[in-house]
Amino acid sequence: MCCVWTKADILLRLQGTESTCEQSSAATICKTMERLPWRTGRRGPFNDTDAGQNVNGRGERWRRRGGEHGDRDRDQEGRRRARSRGGGQGEREEMWNERGGGMRGRGRGGRGAGAGILVEAGGAGEGLRGRGIRRGGGADIWRGGERDADRHRGGGWGENRGGHAEWQRQGRNGVLGGADRERGRMGMGERRGGLSGDRRAGMRDEKREGSGSRVHILSYKTLEELSEEDPSVVAITLSSNPGFQALLCETPMRQDLVQLICLVLNKAFTSRTDRGTLQHLAGIIKDSKFFQNTLVVYVGGMVSEPNPKRRALYPQQLENILTILSEVLNVFPASSVKAVSILLTLLQASINSLRASGEDIQPQMEENVENLKGLIEHLEGRSREGTLRSDRDTYVLLPTRGNDPDEEEHQDFRTIPLYPTPEEFHQEQRPFLRPNITSQRYTNTHLYLDTHFRLLREDFVRPLREGIQQLLQSQMDMGRTDNPVKTKRFDDIRVYFDTQLVVPKCTHTGLAYIVQFDSQPLKFVRWQNSKRLLFGSLVCLSYDNFESFLFATVSDRDPTDLQKGQVTITFTEESRIKLARIQTDQLFLMVETTAYFEAYRYVLEGLKEQTEENLPFQRYIVECSTDVEPPSYLNGSDTYDLSPIAEPLHKVNMGPFNCLDQGAWPTMEELGLDESQMKAFQLALTKELAIVQGPPGTGKTYVGLKIARALLTNKDLWNNDEFPAPMLVVCYTNHALDQFLEGIHTFLKNGIVRVGGRSNSEILKQFNLRELTHSRLFRHSLPSHLRSAYNQIHKELSEKAWEIQSQSMKLECSLKGVMRESFLQRFISDGHWDSLNSLPIDVFFVAWNEKPSLMMEWLGLGSTVVHQRETENANANEEMELEEDLIEIAEEADLIQEERMIEDGWTIGPGAGRDDKKKREMEETAREVEELMLAMNLDKADIQAEQNEEGWQMQRDQRRKMKNRIRKELGKSTAMTEEEEDSIYDVWSLSLGDRWRLYRLWVTRYRVELRTKALVSEQAYQNAVDRLADVKRRENLQILKRATVIGMTTTGAAKFREALQEVCPRVVIVEEAAEVLEAHTITTLSRACQHLILIGDHQQLRPSATVYELAKNFNLEMSMFERLVKMGLPYVRLNYQHRMRPDIACLLTPHIYSELENHPSVLEYENIMGLNTNLFFVEHNHPEEEIRDGKSHQNSHEANFVVALCRYLLLQGYKPEQITILTTYTGQLHCLRKLMPATNFSGVKVHVVDKYQGEENDIVLLSLVRSNLQGKVGFLSIPNRVCVALSRAKKGLYCIGNSVILSRVALWSNIFHTLRDKEQMGKALTLCCQNHPDRQIQASCADDFKQAPEGGCIQPCQFRLDCGHVCSRVCHPYDSEHKEFKCGKRCEKILCDQGHRCTLVCHKQCPKKCPLRVEKIIPQCQHTQMIPCHQDPETFTCQEPCQKLLRCGHQCDSVCGQPCSTKCKVKVTLELQCGHNQKGDCYYKTQTEEPECRARCELLLKCGHVCPGTCGRCFKGRFHNRCSHRCERLLVCSHKCIEPCTRDCPPCQRPCENCCVHSKCMRPCGQPCAPCIEPCAWQCPHQRCSKLCHEPCDRPPCTRPCTKTLACGHPCIGLCGDKCPSKCRMCHHDEVTEIFFGTEDEPEAYFIQLEDCGHIIESTAMDHFMGLGDNSQANEGEEVAIKLKECPKCKTPIRKNLRYGSHINRCLTEIEMVKKKINGHQLNIEEQRKDLQNQWKENLEICEVYLGEEYMRVHHKLKETYLTANDLWVLENQIDFLTRLAKLLKTEKKNMLFSDGYIFRQRVTQFLDWLKNPNQKFTDQQVFDLQRELCRLSLMAELFARCQMAENMGKTEQMQSEVQDIRDVLKISGQFTEQDQLRVKEALKRLDEKFQVKGLGISDEERKMIVSAMKMPPGHWHKCPNGHVYLITECGGAMERRRCPDCNVAIGGENHTLDSSNQVATEMDGALHSAWSEANNLLNFDHLHL
At what angle do helices 1722-1738 and 1740-1758 cross, to 10 degrees? Predict the structure, then answer.
């Protein structure tokens, strides 16, 4: 048997047996054996200086073996290696996931939870490690197979060498798919490498759910059960269940299963409320094999079906299929038309066959077939025209309108689109409208609905339409220059210029975008109170003068962001599709309409959906019948029990009664009602339509609650258990809704649900729909299909949201401050990057502890620049204004938004708590990203610049100025053009303005790239949001159907009308009904409504329309409440007011109300203190001022007077809560707020009159504002508003206004007459002192109140205080006992023995220790200092400058009492290691580190240019900066080459500018473009092109003049079929006729406008110019340039022009051929890619261990779609250098001492940094530098390995001198030359010869002695993996496995087979093969040299 002999065995053999050698020789051999090496590499580190040899030999054998033994050892070794490397992968992974809850570096890898983001920095290697988002990395993932070696047969490395396929499959969860785990169990150890595995299997596994489980296909039984469910259940289940999608992919399929699927789908599509779900379901069907194959086979097979029973079922099946086809085609008209057309053809054939065989085919089916056929023909026609572009184009399904002028009048309003069309913006005529009929009945219900739809739509469309037309006209009038337009004010719209989409934002309602607009023209806007860009407002964005546009609504508004020009908007569905086809950096003109679109949208949609037959109460609403019947539910029983609402004394005696019997009713006293309230109560309960009018203070809400309680107490009358229905309460405002529901809650403790709106009520919080849906009980009670659908969709949503947010976070950073240069490096040209990094010498007068931000310095924001400015502006007197805190006024903008925002619960899921946690995590991550990316963050509360070494720091005012300046620059939209950029060489030579413009260009490029990445996920996210909304809507219906009372605002009711139709409320109470547009009331009503109660007052506020003409001439502002009252329907008006004192009530009666009686309670009010009247009107004639933003006004005189009066009343002792200031204009609100500091006025309410209806207070101060020479009173002439203004006060009302102009209004004239009669009107208000009644003051202006400074008079108070001082104030009526008064006189108490008095005021507590500073001597230094009296001088730090000298001889810069500074900052001349001298801090002389050398490098590079770097940045000549010399050659694409100093220009990397009318190429310019294969769009009335878009056209240019008329009214100067030029021959005569070619001034000249540059050129000359060279041949020897023709005026390449499309297409074809040649033939590229991938795999084994992260980057780059030959060149070099570097690191791991290894790793890290540099293009110079440095590293590795060997052999001290000489050569600071290399090699050779440390560590003679002594033929000597030598006896084949005594690894083998980890020890006997077989042994003797 062949035995394995270790070193110990051999020693025993030599010591214990005779041999041919002498005993002394044996002893020598034994000693020699003891010195055999501990570690000897397979090759030995000294055999070759080239580190690039392949190391796969051993690995191949290792992988073949599969690692049956030694798995545990390798596992331990893998962990040992990971620990021994300072950045072991396990540790790195743990560090990565330290916040995420995931630990991927341990075990099999857990899933990292939480939200994190990886930010890639251009070249600085900066990155943020977030929470668990990294999908894999390093040893623990690549070598994951090792971890489970004991669990799998054939595990360890053999299972999946390298583990890369495992990494590919584990996806987001970091867990293997099921199939992979199965393979592991089956022992698939023969897989050679992770990358050579089956990738497709990995992709399949990715699609599986969970951690590898397969998707369960939906079963036949499940589908059967589903077919019995409600349609919405079917739709939600099918769309969210992956099993259904898998079922549709099954082929072949049984007929019964096909039929069942069709049946279930047909049922799903009958659900009309789950729109998003149905769209997704249609998408699943469209893309399935079922739709494309199975249905085709099934329908086609019907024709030949012999079975009559089956044939009888086919008609029903065909109806189901027809429904499916119709739905799919409606959702996806563009992409499904072909498939539907094929199926419809087969379906028609089947119908004909079935009819022929006698089957009954319904006419309805044939009609549906014809309709579908017509739609397909229409779509196919649009496709041929090239206008069928998108599935989401809503207009493609509409037939083209005819030219009948009367058609619009008869057009069904349901076919009118909600959004304005392009035609509407450009046509002059107004749409057809009918007025709201208010004096007679409507002829029919359709006319009624049609009238209100058209009026309401026109109310929001007209301002937008007329505003845009006005804008376009203004641009035309001003010569199309937009600068003057920016300052112009438009009546109906607000315009925002240079608008750009900047950040996509994930919201619960879908995808939104933060947009940036130019805020400079809007500096005057006070955003807090401005009505601009309110939530829900409609905005229209266009980039082509409104030839096309996008619609969006404002979805979030922050005044702070608006000041910076940012707002969040959400696009409509159609606009989102259009947006995807528009460039990401496109600038828009954004126009906002003043209308609140969301309210219009919901109501208009509701009107469209409202059918004539389902509108309730048509008899009264439409026919205006005055005979109102009882509610229909009273027909069965009309017995009411009103005892719960009776007065307490009458509850017991009150029994049930018949409410329809007038005589049976209880008395009004028993019910606690007055006479009119009783009538209203009876009317409401006995009439199905009841109208109750409630003037101010008459108790509308009180009566309404009585009515509600009566109905709820007797709900059995109108509700039943079989079909339960709630009561619906609708109010116009949230405040009124809260009041009403709180009233209901007093008697109904459960069953209330409040939907939508912003509720401020704590009582109602528990009843909010959002809160109810959060309860666990409710979540558990949900049907299973809703729970599973929610979970599935929410999972998809979260994934897509994260993908978008990770990009958005970085996008937002670019808006929040100045980005660090490293993140912009990839978007800065190499030349400019080098220039940026070469700071001018003069900026280095400041030395830095840390390197400052280059970008901050460059932009003039660094500490250097600011320090200079600080010095220059030292004497500038810019004092910061300390603004006093003002009172909180409910801004009108906020109030409006509160009514608009509907937090509905439809969009809030059960994970709200988790969402909050995620939000917090996201915010934390965002802060980390900002910290990493931003050199200066504007959002930080305290922004500081870098500090220099002298400790200078910017002051607070400087930081504020800097912030403002940065904000201003970031808010600008102008960026430098690429042409300007190309002309710049030195970026430091630019002016500050140009630097900012260039910075904005770089940031724009950065943003465009991020936006492009995010686009992929955005549509998927929106789709998931829509589906989730459907599920949530179904969830919430579960709650609403169980409710007793549902409360909504009118806007909320319109928005959720679909839910109301399902909930079917039978009783509806509408509060504030007179304030609601009639259309809103209509959409509130459902078909099930049997009882409608309208409560309001049409003589107070009316509904408000946007368009005045529609309000007045078309009666749009008349509510249903008012119209029905005027039409004579019975109503009751409440007559007793309970609010105003009689004096105030007299202002309303009889001027507004004919009668209004006072309740006795209002007669008992006390008089107002400090004034001689409770009601007064102060007259004045001070003029108003107009507010610049909007149409509001302010009057500063009135504001000052009202505020002074308010202060006076507060001084009388009134609480702030008792006083309200009202004004009629929002502009006055801001004026008032500025005068009311919070310290004095906190608690006082300040409101606009319109927002105070329904409210009241004790004292009201009313400012009427209007006072002008024109006599305009505005809406003060409207009685409704006057009524509200004068009826809010209970005890005191004080008005101020211009009575002269108000008297022109009859109502005001009458009111003034009443006031004058009672002497309650005049020029001045009389103030009366409470303490001195005889003293009175006449106050006509604010200054007059100064005569009562403390609310009394100016006499002194004279009250003696407890401290002995006299009260210092003047007469004050408040605090008469002086309990709250604080004495402000100086304190007279003595504090210490020195007689020092207290320095505080009297009321403050005296200090315990005397703080007065006195002179004292410091004992330690004897300096005199000012020290607090109580302090011991020994404890005081002396502040005198230190006089000591530091060791260097310079004076210390610290203070006397502090330790001396350790670092001397005095500037001295330093001599650097590189040999250069420069100024620097003195302390560098005593330290090993030194500053970076700034001397110019000036080496002549390989390219022949001088190196642009400095000595320090070129690493003292070791690695030079890339040459920045500009190339500027013209590329074939017409761009200039922007690469610096390139021998062969690489493909252009700019965005491709090639585009057509259909699409735009999104690839880089240098990549070949995919040709557009859409039909050519070039056509005119005379001819059209029949070719494809990319082909040369087959029609000539049309030469006939264009027949169109320009907007200016003059004829177009262009030609037919071309785009009309923007200039006019008349309006722009000089520009048009300017001579260029010579034919421009001819009267019949026609012109062409080039779209690329905008120049206008005469057509015949341009045609001739473009024809040159088309058909000409080059002369012999002459070269013809391949390039695009250029504009003859400006040389801009002509790319976009249909007229010259043939020439352009021919040129582009030639250019594409050149591009392909430059990029390399794609097949060759792919071959090279595969070769490199194979090379990558070959070296994966070693590189993944030592350079895993860097090596994987190469792999990811190799997988990119587009790679050029130049890219492959870079990757090839990277693989080569990384491989060689990894081998050196392996040597370091095994063969170096710790100290040497540390030095070596530092050198390798620096080399890696050079290798990873983004500017690393592997130019000749760069490759040369890298090779020289790698040579240095290789020789260094050889030296260090010899040092370790010498340590093992005990020869270190003997070799020390020689080794140090070699080290000195290797440490040379400059480049490692060939001479240096030769010197080192020779020195190493001499070292080997002298000390013999190479190889085995023994001499050759000694080796021969050992081999000779053992008497074994060649091939018996072997070594373990760590190089320890052993012997195998007998035949030389291993038959046993043992452990190496030196390192405990396995040695030997089994069955004559050596373990793959062991090798033949060639160095012992020269054998190359093991001797276990005779054939191999013979080979050994050919190479034997002993």
Answer: 150
